[in-house]
Amino acid sequence: MPFASHLGMTLDEATPEVARGSLAWSAERCTVGGALHGGALMTLADAVGAVCAYLNLPAGAGTSTVESKTNFLRAVRSGGVRATARPLHVGGTVVVVQTDLRDDEDRLVGQTTQTQLVLTPKARS
Predict the structure, then answer these.
(1) Which of 18, 30, 35, 124 has the fewest C-beta atoms under 10 angstroms from its C-beta?
(2) Integer Cα distance of 78 and 100 in angstroms
(3) What is the pTM of this model?
């Protein structure tokens, strides 16, 4: 995940049942008010959720986010954020993943539900 790595995100666990990643607070990732930017939180959720979806695909398939919704519940002004993604639905067309974002005190700071399209190779005639 080159973009996620560039932003300082780490992937800490990855199985079809759960994927976990993290992002440390830093001033460069914040809004003017010192809170971790919502875009950084959404990127963490999208990246970890995509890994979870990918690990639930059939062999040879790929995935792409087609919908993502995030609820922000509290600001993160220090420490870091941990993302935990779990599949809600694994189908032949879409995989739906829910990702919880928690701060260092284990408080829920956000929740993302995303839909990943299952991209299967087309048969050649």
Answers:
(1) 124
(2) 18
(3) 0.93
